[in-house]
Amino acid sequence: MPVYKAPLRDVKFLMHELLDAPAQLAKMPFYAENDTADGDLMNQVLEEAARFVEGELLPLNAVGDQEGCVRHDDGSVTTPTGFKAAYNKYRAAGWTALDADPAFGGQGMPHLVSNVLVEMMNSTNVAWSMYPGLSHGAYSALHAVGSEELKAIYLPKIVSGEWTGTMCLTEPHAGTDLGIIRTKATANADGSYAISGTKIFISAGEHDLTPNIVHLVLARLEGSPEGTKGISLFLVPKFLVNEDGSIGERNGVVCGSLEHKMGIHGNATALLNFDGATGYLVGEINKGMNHMFIMMNAARLGTGLQGLGIGETAYQNALAYAKDRTQMRHEPRVNPAENADPIIVHPDVRRMLLTGKAYTEAGRAMAMWLALSIDTEHHHPDEAARKEAADLVALLTPIAKAFMTDNGFNIAVQSQQVFGGHGYIREWGMEQYVRDARIGQIYEGTNGIQSLDLLGRKVLMDGGKKLQKLAATLQTFIEENEGDDDLASMLDQLGKAANQLGSLTMVVGQKAMSGPEGADEVNAVAVDYLRFFGHVVYGYLWARMAKIAHAKIAAGQDRDGFYLAKVQTAQFYFAKLFPETKALAATIKAGNESLAVDDRMFGLERALVGA
Question: According to DSSP H, which parts of 426-578 are helical?
C-alpha cells in the first residue's frame, strides 16, 4: 500500500513564517471573537486532521479504486467498502463543520485551516474526498444567496454532514457551453418549481453515505432569455423535507447511470434524470450563472488542491522507493560491498524528485496564500483590504486550478517513472495516482477554459488592473531585497519574467483588439500565458521562502536541515523549472498565425467554418 505522512512541518512553516497567519487573522473580528485565530489551536486541529486522513482515508484509497461504486436497478448507489463508515467518523469528529458559519452549526475556523485539511484528504483519497467537498460548495452558494427559509432548512443539515450536496451544471450536448442547457423549470402554484431535464458528470450525485442529497441545479424558466442570461439556480433535494425538518417523500430525481471512468472510481459520477422534480429558486431569477459561480469557484480551488494533494503523495512514494531501490553503480560508490547503489543518487532520479518537491511546495504556498486571502476578503473589517484580497483571489483562482492540476499530473507521471516497470503495476499504487490526477485538468472547466478566464476576463477585461496590483507587490519585494547576495540570481530572473509578463500582456491585448480575429489570438496563447503567469507566482513565493530560510540558517536555527532544503529546492526551481518561461514567451509571441492552417488539413471544407 502507498505511504503518506501529512507535511505538517511545511504547513506550519507557511502558516507561521511565510504568511504570519495568526496575526493576520487576529485582525478579523469574526475569527478573533470566535477564538479561532489562535496559532496553537490551528496547529492542533491540523495535527488531528493528519491522524484522521492517514488512519481512515489512506487505507481505503486502493479499495475504492478496485471496487468502484455500484448502481442498483432502483437507481440507488452503493459506495465502496469502508466509505460510509469513514464518512460517519468524519461527521462525528466535526470535520464537515470546520470552517462553516457558527450560525448554522459551524466551527468558524479559518478557510486557511480547511484548505490544508482538503489537501491532506486529496493526498490520501481523492475519490472519497469529493463527497464532502461538493457539499462545501453547495453550502457556500446557499449561504451566500439562498433565502432565509432555505438556509434555515438545509444549511444546518449540510454543515453537520447529515446531508450532502452537489452541483448540477452540464448536459450531454452542452459541455462547457452552459448557455445551451435544456433543463426546464416551470412555476408551481405553491411557489416551488417543477424541474425536468438530464444532467451528466454529477460528482457524488447518488450514494449511500447520507439519507438525503441536496442538488443545486441550473435550469431555464419558460420565457427566460436564451443563453447564460436566462439561467436560474434551483435547490432540488433527493427527498422532500417535511415542515418539522424530517425527510419526506422521494422527489423526482433519479440516477440513470454511473460513468465508467479512467480514475476516481470510488466517487459516484452520475447521470441524473429530473422528471418534474420539486425545486426551489436560489437567489434571483436569471442570475443562476452568477450564483453558481460561487460554487464553481470553490470547486475550482478544490480541484487545484486535488492536483496538489496527489502530487504530494506521489512524490512521497517516489522518494521512499528511490531510497530503497538499488540499481546501477554510482561514483563514488554508496554501497561498495553491493553490486548496485540506491537510485536516489542518480541525477535523473533526483531531477524527477526535485521537480515534484519544487512544484508541490510552491503550490502549497500559493494555495495557503489564496486561502488566507479568502478569509481576508470575507472577514476583514477594512473595505479596502477586502477589495484587495478579492482581486487577488479572482486573479489567482484560474491559476490555482490549472497550474496546480497540470503540475500535479506531471508529478504523478514523473513519480511513476521513478518506479520504472514497477510503477506500471497496480500493487505499488502509482498508476492509480496517474489515473486519478488526470481528471483535475478536465473538470470544473478544462484548463484551457481556465486560461481563457485568466487572460480574457481577469486580465484584459479590466485593463490589467488586477495584474498591475500583483506586479506592484512583486516589484516591492524585489526592491526591498536588492543587494541581498543570497537572492540576487532569483530576483534577477523573477524581475525579468515579471516585466516580460507585462509586455506580453500588452502584445496580446493589442492583438485582441485588432478586429474579428482578436478572439482567436487570445484563444491561441491563453494556455501558455497561464503557465507563464503560474511560474511568476511560484517564483515569487520561492524567493520569499528562500529569504526566510537563509535568515534561519544564518541564525543557526536549522538543526534538521529543513531550511537548507528550502534554499536548495528554490535554487533548483529557478535553475531547472523557471526557465520554461523563455520558451513560453516565444510561443505566446507566435500567436495564432501557425494555427490558422488550411482547413483541408483536418478533412474540412472551408464552408464548414466560414471564410
Answer: 430-438, 447-452, 465-480, 488-512, 518-554, 562-572
